[in-house]
C-alpha cells in the first residue's frame, strides 16, 4: 500500500539530526549513473561522469550544463555533488529521502523542485511512483531519478543532441520545462491505462454484478486516491514557478510553463472525473444488487404464495379422520383439482396486478 | 467516454518538442474552410479565403477583420496563418490540439481564448464537445472551430451583414463578445435537452423503479459531470476578460461581457441543480426498492406464517399411528377445520395489529 | 420544474443580438401598471402613470421619485421608460428577461439590482418565483415586478403616504432598503411554510414509514435546492451595496442594509438546516425500512424453523411403508406429540437466546 | 424545532417599518430586572435600578458602569435606556428581536455584540437557546439577557464585588471578555451533556441495534446542527474584536480575547467531531442491521434447504399409489431414514464449506 | 473517548477568573522533573533543577538555556518559573490546562507554541495524546510535557551533549525546530501503527465480512478523526513561524522549519488517505453483505421453487379420496416420478438461464 510505504520510509529517519543523508528506499540499487550534457546554441556534448568533481570544469563555462543522476542511494556521491554546486544540506538530504511531497523551494541561487513520476505496472495493476528532483541554477540543471533503469529523459537528450526545437537556444529554465513536460505527459499514459481499466470495469458491472468487480473497483479507487494526492500539489509547484518569484525563470519560458500547468490541471480534472465515476459505479452496483434481491424475493414469494395454500389443501384431504364426507363424493377428486386450479389462477392474477410478474 | 478520449488524445503528442503542430482529433475531416468578414460602421464584406496570405491586405486596413476557420487539422495552413498574425508557436500548437481546457491567455498583442461548444446528440443521447478558439487582436479576430459542418456563427455573420444591432460600430472585442454569447446560448440548448431527459427519468422512477432507469441515470450523471468540467473554467476565463487585464478589451464592452458571465454562472448553477437532483433520485430509487422488498417480504411472511402451522396440523392427522383417538371422533374432522380457521384468524389479527396489512 | 423552466426561457432568446427586448415569461399578462410616488420630508404624492413620459417632470424636481412597474412584458413601454432615465440597453433587456440570477451592477449613474421574490403556493405545494428589479438613481428609484397581481410593496407605499418611520426624510437608497427588506421578509413567510411541511413530514416518518412520504421528501428537497440557489447570490448583492462601492449609497443607510444582510444570511442558514434535516430524514427512513425488513425476516424465520422440522416428522409417520414399528406402539402417537413439543420448545429457547423475540 | 421557531419569530415582525420595537419571544415574562454595578480599582457598588434614568449619574462618572438587564420584552424601558446611552434605533430593535444571528457591529461610540447562550434541558433532552447582547462603550457596558431567571453572570458580579483577579483594574472591554468567557464556558457544559448522550447511544448501538436508538440519534444530530449554526459565527465575531478594528478594545485585552477565541474554536471542533461520530454511528447501525438480516437469512435458508427435500421424500412415500414396490420392502423404512439422514449430512457439510455456519 | 475528555477537562475550569492556575489532567502524577541544559558552540552542561530560581543564573549568561519540565500539575512551581522568565499569566495558565488546541502566540519577548504528542497504545489500540508546550525566547527555551515518564526529547539532549549536527552552533529557534521535528516524526510512528491496523482490517474484510470488523473499523475511524483534528492546526502553527512574524525566528532556521512543515502536511495527507480508505472499506463491506444476502436468497429461492411444487404433487397423491383413477394405474407411481423429475429439470434450466446458478 502506497501510503503505508510512505509512512514507513519516513519512520526510517526518525532520531537522526537534520541534514543526515539517509536513503529511504527499500534496497540498494545496482549503481549510480551520472550523465552530463553540455550545450549551447551551436554545440551539444554528452558524457558519462565517473566522479562528481568532473563537472566543475563545465560549471564555469558559459554554456548550459545538465547533469542527470539515476539512483539516489549513495550519500557520499550526492554529498560531493551537492558541495560542487553549493547546495544546502537539507536539499541533499531531501534528494535521498524519496518520500517527499511535490514542492518547489527557492534557495536564491537555485530552485529545488521535487515531483513524482507515476508509471503504471500492468502486471500488478498498480501505480509505481518514482521521485524526480530538479535543481535549476544559473546555467546548470541537476536532475535526480530514483531508479537506474527506465530513464524517461532520453527524449529530451535526443532533442538536445539533434538540436530539435528551440531547446538549445534557451537557458536551463527551458530545459527544466522540457523535463517537466515529459513527466506530466507520463501522467497521461498512466491515466490512459487507468481509464481503460475503468471502462472495462464499467462494462462488466453493466453485464453482471459480481463480488470480484467490487474488489477491483476498490483497488482502482485507491490507485486514483494515490494519483490525486501525488499530482495535486504539482499545481501549486508550477504555478509558483509561473509567478516568477525567482529570477532564474525567464519571461520567455512562462508561456511554456503555463502550458505544462494546463496539462497538470487537466490531469487532476481527469482523476477527479474518474473518481466520481467510480463512486457512481459503486452506487450503481449497490442499487443493482438490491434490485436483484428484490427480483429473487418476488419469485420466492410467488412460488410460496401459490403452493403453500395448495399443499395445505392436499394435506387436509390426506388426513385419516374416519368421517370426512368429501372423500366419499364421486367427483370429490375432480372438485378439489378445480378448487386448487382456481386458487392458483386467482393468485397469479393478483401478482400480475401488483406488477410482480 | 469523454474523459478517456481526452486522455487518449493527449497521449498522442507525447515525446514531441514544444510547438509541434499535431492534430489530436480522431481522423482527418474533409477540408478546411476559411471565411473572412471585413467590416466597419459603414460597410461589411464577406469572402472565402483560399490562401492564408490573402488576409494580409485586410490586416493592414483600419477596418475590422474577422477570419473564421472551420477545421483545424491542417498544420501547414495554420502555421501560415499564425505567421501572418504573429502568433506564438504554442498558440498555433494549441489551436490544433483539441483537448485544451477552457482558458484565456494574454500574449500582449492579442488574447488567446479557448472554450468548448457542447452540442447534444439526441440519437446517441450524449454530449458532443467541439473546441472553439478565439484570437482577439487589434482590429482583427480569428476564430477556429473543429468541424467544418454545423457552423454556429452564421447568426453573428448575419447580424454583421445586415448591420443589425451595434456590432458594426464596435471593435473586435465586441465581436468576440457576440461569438461568446452564441456559444454560451448553445449551452442552454444542450441543458434544455438534458433537463427534458431528467424530467422523463424522474417521472418513470416515480411510476415504476426499473434497473434500466438506473443505467440511464448513471449515463446522465456522467454527461453532467462532463458538462460541468467543461463549463466551470469558463467562469474564470470571462471573469479575467472583465477585469480588463488587457487593453484590447474596451470599457464599453464590459457590460456585455458581464452579461455573458451571468449566463455562464447560470449554466453552472443549472448543472449543479441537475446533478443534485440525480443524486436525490438515486436515493429515491434505492429507498423505493428497499420499500418494495419490504412489502414483498410481508406478503411472504404472512402466507408462510398462516399456512405452515395449518399444513403441520393437517400433516399430524395424516399420520398412520394405530392409536389416534381424535381420528375416531364423530366430529373430529369438523373440529379440526374450526381449529385451523381459528388459528388463521388469530394470525391475521396479529398482522393487522402490526400494520403489515 | 424550476430549473428546466429557467433553462427553457433562456433558450427563447437564442439568436437575437444583444439588447433585444424580449419578454421571456410564459404568456402575456393582462396589462402594465405604473405607479409613481413623489415624496420628500414634507409631502407625498401618488399617481398612476399612463405614459412613461409623464415621469420626466418629476425626475427634474429635487424631491424623491419612485416608480413601480407591475408587468414587464411590454417592450415599447420599457424602452421609453429606459430612455427617460438613461438606462443602458442591456439593463432594459434584463428587466424583461425574467431568468436573471440575483445580481448588482453599478452603471455609474445608477445601480441595477435584480433579485427574486419567492412566494409559496400552498395548493400546489411549490415555490413560485417572481423577478424583482430595482434601479437606484440619484433621487429616483424604479422597481419592476413580473406580475400585475399581488403587489408586495403596498406596505412601503403606506409608510410613505402616512410618513411612518424615517422613510420620507431619507434618500432613495433608504427606499431601496425598505423594498429589499420587504422582499427578504417574504422569504421567511415562505420558509415558515416549508418548515411546517418538514415538521409534518418528520412526524409522519416517525409514525409509519411510507413510500408516499419519500416522494414528498424528494419534492421538498427540490424546492429547498431551488430556494437556496435563488437566495444564496443575494448575500453577495447586498454585501456589495454595503461595501459602498457606489456613491449612491449613503453612510446612514449602511446599518439598515447590514440589517437586511443579516436576515439574508439567516434565511440561507435556515435553508441549509432544513436541507441537512431532510438528508438525515432520508437516512432515518432507509434505516427504518431495513430494520422493519429485519423484523419481518425474524418472524418468517422463526415460523419456518419451528414448523418445517415438525411438518417433516408428521410427514414421516404419514408414510405408507408396511413395516414401521413405531406406528404399532400403543403410545406412539402420544410420544410423537411430546417429541414435537420438545423440538418446538428447544427452537423457541434458541431464538430467545439469540434475542430474536 | 429550533429553526422553525427562529423563522416564525422573524415572521412576526413582517410589515413594520425599520426601528420598530417588537419583542419576538413567545410570551411576556414576569418583569424586567436591571442591575447596575459601578466599579473601579478601589471600589465596587451594586444596586438594582428602578428607572433607566437612574443610570445617567453613573454614566458621567469616570468609574466603570455595568448594567445588566434581564428580560427584553419591554419596549418603553429599552427605548429609554437606548436614549440614555445614545444607541442607534436599529440596535434597540435588535435587542428585543431575539432571533439575531451572532454578530459584532461597530457603531463608532460603542460595539454591539450579539451571541447565544445554549443551556441544555436534561428533561426534554434539547438545547434551550437564549440571546445575550452586549453594548461595549467608553467606560460602560450594557448586557441584555432574554430571561429573568437563571442569571449566568453572577460569577462575574461576584469577582467584581470581591475584587478577585484583575477585573476591577481594567476597562469595560475586559469586563466584556469576562462575560464572553462565562458564555463560552457554558457551551462546554452543554457539550459535555451532549457528549454523554452520544457515549450512551454508542454503547447501546454496540450492544443491540434498535429502532428507538435511531430516533435518538436523529434528535442528537439535529441538536448538534443547531449548536453548530449558533456557535460557528461566533468565531468571526470574536476574531473581529481581536483585529482591534475598534479603539474600544485595548491591546492588553487582546490575549484574553484570543483565549476565548481558542475556546470557541475548540467548541466548534468538538461539535464537528460529534457530528462525524453520529454519521459514522448511523453507518454502523445500517451495516449492523444488514449483517443481522444476512445472519437470519442464513438460518432460514439452512432450515429450508434441509427440510424441504426431506419433507418431499416423506410426501412421496405417503402417496397412495397401488403399485409402490419400495413400500413392500422389509427394510424400506430403515432405508428411507438412512437416505434422509445422508441427505441432511450432505447439506450441512455444504453449508459448513460455504461458511454459513 | 477523546472528545468527551477534552470537553470534560475544559468544564473543570468553569467559574474561575482568567489566569487561574488549575491542572485539568485526570490525577496528580508522581512529581515534576526539571532538566536544564546550558550550551553554546563550545560546551554543553546538563543538570537537574530542584528550584525554579536556580535557572536565573543561566538566564543572564549569553549561552543558550533549555529547560525541559516533565509534569505540569504543580501550580506553585509553574508560577515561579513563569515569573523568572516574565511569562504572561495566561501562558502559565495554558501550560497547566492540557486541553489546548495547537496554536502559536507571539508575546513579543517570546513565542508560545502548543502542540500535541500522539503516542499509540498498542494494547488498548488507541491514541494517547500528550500536550507539549514550548516557550521560545531570546537565548532560552522552555519545554513542558504532561507526563514524567517517557521523555521523547532524549535524542535532542543526546545530540546537544555530543555536539552532533549544527545544533550547538545555532540559537534556540533551531533547538525549537529540533524539538518540533522529534514530535512530528513521532506522528509517523503512530501513523505506521494505524496503517498496519488498516492493512490487517482490509485483508480480513476481503476474506470474510464480519460484524466485529465493523466495530474495529469504527474505532479506527474515530482514532483518525481525532488524529486529524490534533494535527491539522499544526500546519498553521508552523506556517506562522515560517512567515517570520517574530524576530525570534532567524532566516537560517526557515529552511528547517519548512522541512517540518512538509512533514506535517504529509502526515495530514496520510491521515486523509487513511480516512478515505476506511470510508471505501465500509462501502465495500456493505456491498459485500448485500451481495451475500443476495447469494443466500438465491439458494433459498432455488430450493423452494423446486421442492414446493413437488411436495404439492406428492401431497395430492397422498389424499384419501375414494375415486382417484391415477392411483390405480399400474405405472402411476413411475409416471409421477417422471413428472416430478421433469419439473425439477425445467426449474433448474430456468435458473441456469437466469444465471442464478
TrEMBL record, chains A, B, C, D, E:
The gene is corA. Belongs to the CorA metal ion transporter (MIT) (TC 1.A.35) family. It is a multi-pass membrane protein. Mediates influx of magnesium ions. The keyword Metal-binding does not apply. The chain crosses the membrane at residues 299-319, 331-351. This is Magnesium transport protein CorA. Keywords: Cell membrane, Ion transport, Magnesium, Membrane, Transmembrane, Transmembrane helix, Transport. GO terms for molecular function: cobalt ion binding; cobalt ion transmembrane transporter activity; magnesium ion binding; magnesium ion transmembrane transporter activity. It comes from Nitrosomonas halophila. GO terms for cellular component: plasma membrane. It is found in: Cell membrane; Membrane. It holds the Pfam family CorA. InterPro entries: CorA_cytoplasmic_dom, CorA_TM1_TM2, Mg/Co-transport_prot_CorA, MgTranspt_CorA/ZnTranspt_ZntB. It comes from the Bacteria.
Amino acid at each position: 500500500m502506497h501510503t503505508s510505504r510512505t509512512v514507513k520510509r519516513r519512520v526510517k529517519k526518525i532520531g537522526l539530526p537534520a541534514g543526515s543523508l539517509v536513503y529511504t528506499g527499500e534496497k540498494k540499487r545496482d549503481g549510480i549513473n551520472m550523465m552530463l550534457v553540455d550545450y549551447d546554441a551551436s554545440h551539444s556534448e554528452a558524457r558519462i561522469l565517473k566522479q562528481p568533481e568532473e563537472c566543475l570544469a563545465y560549471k564555469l563555462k558559459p554554456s548550459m550544463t545538465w547533469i542527470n543522476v539515476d539512483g539516489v542511494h549513495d550519500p557520499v556521491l550526492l554529498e560531493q555533488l551537492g558541495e560542487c554546486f553549493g547546495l544546502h544540506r537539507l536539499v541533499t538530504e531531501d534528494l535521498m529521502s524519496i518520500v517527499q511531497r511535490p514542492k518547489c523551494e527557492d534557495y536564491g541561487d537555485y530552485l529545488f523542485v521535487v515531483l513524482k513520476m507515476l508509471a503504471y505496472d500492468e502486471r500488478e495493476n498498480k501505480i509505481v511512483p518514482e521521485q524526480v528532483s530538479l535543481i535549476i541554477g544559473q546555467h546548470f540543471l541537476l536532475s535526480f531519478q530514483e531508479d537506474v533503469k527506465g530513464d524517461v529523459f532520453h527524449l529530451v537528450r535526443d532533442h538536445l543532441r539533434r538540436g530539435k526545437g528551440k531547446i538549445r537556444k534557451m537557458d536551463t529554465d527551458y530545459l527544466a520545462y522540457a523535463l517537466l513536460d515529459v513527466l506530466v505527459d507520463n501522467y497521461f499514459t498512466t491515466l490512459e491505462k487507468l481509464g481503460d481499466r475503468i471502462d472495462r470495469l464499467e462494462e462488466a458491472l453493466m453485464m453482471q454484478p459480481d463480488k470480484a468487480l467490487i474488489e477491483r473497483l476498490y483497488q482502482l479507487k485507491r490507485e486514483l486516491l494515490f494519483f490525486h494526492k501525488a499530482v495535486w500539489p504539482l499545481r501549486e509547484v508550477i504555478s509558483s514557478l509561473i509567478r516568477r518569484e525567482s529570477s532564474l525563470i525567464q519571461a520567455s519560458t512562462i508561456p511554456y510553463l503555463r502550458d505544462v500547468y494546463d496539462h497538470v490541471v487537466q490531469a487532476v480534472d481527469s482523476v477527479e472525473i474518474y473518481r466520481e465515476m467510480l463512486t457512481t459505479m459503486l452506487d450503481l452496483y449497490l442499487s443493482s444488487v438490491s434490485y436483484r434481491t428484490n427480483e429473487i424475493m418476488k419469485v420466492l414469494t410467488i412460488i410460496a404464495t401459490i403452493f403453500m395454500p395448495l399443499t395445505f389443501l392436499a394435506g387436509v384431504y390426506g388426513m385419516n379422520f374416519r368421517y370426512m364426507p368429501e372423500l366419499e363424493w364421486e367427483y370429490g377428486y375432480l372438485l378439489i383439482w378445480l378448487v386448487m386450479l382456481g386458487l392458483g389462477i386467482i393468485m397469479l392474477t393478483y401478482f400480475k396486478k401488483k406488477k410482480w410478474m
